[in-house]
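DUF1772-domain-containing protein
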Amino acid sequence: MTSYHSGRPPAGLLIAQALGITASTYLLGSNATIAFITIPAVMEAPSPLAAKQWAKVYNLGKPFGIGCSVIATACTGFIAYNQDRAFLPFKLNTAAALIFPAIIPFTILVLKPINDKLFAKGDALALDEKAEVGVAQEETTKALIDRWTKLHLVRTAITGVGAILAIWAALDKRETGSVGGFSLQSGANRLG
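Structure:
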């Protein structure tokens, strides 16, 4: 356990905390988006297309989900390791470091049988690749989605930078306290 008495955790712990929070909230938001937005849209498609779309969402999401889970686990574990075991933050970070990887056995035991069936359905169903014959190339569904995605990535990057800065600001707060008439102030109190 690292001890720090300057009133501010070392930069490495702040970075780990920001990365852990960011990775875990990204994973939460990503999974919620898939469940509440992506899959309902996929369900509107005919079965052959829905199976293909589901497989694409799954294959694109899997590495991000694994990566975010690993980052969140490692960061919260590192933070917990460096905290005083007598306090609640240690217990919360330890619990988080144990909970994040719990999605792996859940996925293998509960979701994998369904995943296997969906992949088999996708392989068995054929798509009509001629649906957009005669449409200008730049106006095809794929071209429009590609263009939208590039613009959405810019919006996503802007949001990501803002989220990281907001998290860093939240983590940079210092507690107020006083000893024998001498007081330390933090946050907005430092502004006067």
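The CA atoms of residues 23 and 68 lie 5 Å apart.
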